[in-house]
Design brief:
Dihydrofolate Reductase, subunit A, 239 residues, alpha/beta, 5 helices, binds NADP nicotinamide-adenine-dinucleotide phosphate
Length: 239
């Protein structure tokens, strides 16, 4: 069974996702206090891991490409490293572009979600790093299958989907988001074209959320004026 997926994001009041671009806090509001809310709210979900897109993971991973050969890794079965009871740091990386150099990111055990077409040598590099991996079909875009494999392989019940825009949009389009949790900073970006928290790369006129509805769960105003919104995602009512 796939885990429950909660898309948990920080947003400006205009829905943008780059906190470094936001207006600064008002006089007397502590910016560090605002930033701490994200992790504190994350902990309240008691998830067993977090999940991000390839672009975001490339900003966080520390490794670089190297040649370790490819002996013994022709199979496209999931590989499970030594998780040691750690939470999971899951990267959706269809082409195998991210290099880790270790088995964790921010202390959490890395699981790479790949296409079956990645080179054997890349799988060998992940094994040498102790990174776990599993597959999302021939082109790496079958997110439903990957989430089933994630649930079955690691036995996790809840995972946080933490961006960026592209991967959040892909999960929305696939109907795989169970809940949306947004922390709205008292801040604005304002520039046209800056990514919002959902950014599915589709055709003009396409509606990635079609067939789904959001049901309000709760609203909390946190210290410093940050507003935490929770919505359950459910099938849209028949029309
Ligand atoms: N405000 C926040 O809290 C927050 C949180 C996270 C990230 N961010 C920021 O967001 C930016 C990155 O966002 P982004 O939208 O450019 O990238 P992203 O969502 O991190 O990654 C997008 C990548 O995921 C892969 N992907 C997309 N759709 C897929 C699908 N259907 N199946 C499998 N793989 C798929 C593609 O990888 P390939 O290109 O390799 O095919 C795509 O380029 C960063 O600058 C980061 O700092 C902000």
């Amino acid at each position: 069974m796939r885990p429950r997926i909660i898309c948990h994001m920080v947003s400006s009041v205009d829905g943008r996702l780059h906190p470094s671009r936001y207006t600064v806090p008002a006089a007397g509001v502590d910016g560090a206090r605002l930033r701490r809310h994200y992790d504190e709210v994350s902990a309240r979900f008691e998830a067993q891991g977090w999940m991000i897109g390839r672009v975001t993971m490339q900003e966080m991973a520390k490794g670089s490409a190297r040649d370790v050969g490819s002996a013994g890794v022709a199979s496209r079965e999931p590989f499970v490293g030594d998780r040691k009871d750690r939470d999971l740091a899951v990267a959706i990386d269809p082409h195998g572009k991210v290099h880790y150099g270790q088995d964790n990111v921010l202390g959490d055990h890395v699981v790479a979600v790949l296409s079956e077409g990645v080179p054997d040598a890349y799988l060998a590099e992940l094994r040498e790093d102790g990174v776990s991996y599993l597959f999302a079909g021939p082109d790496g875009r079958d997110l439903g299958r990957a989430m089933e494999a994630l649930g079955e392989t690691f036995g996790i019940e809840t995972i946080l989907l933490e961006g960026g825009a592209g991967i959040n949009g892909a999960f929305l389009k696939a109907g795989l988001i169970d809940e949306i949790s947004v922390l709205i900073q008292p801040a604005v970006d304002g520039l046209a074209g800056v990514e919002s928290i959902f950014g599915y790369q589709g055709e003009p006129g396409e509606r990635p959320g079609a067939g789904q509805s959001l049901r309000h769960v709760s609203t909390e105003t946190l210290e410093g004026g940050l507003v935490w919104l929770r919505y359950q995602v459910e099938d849209a009512p028949a029309t």
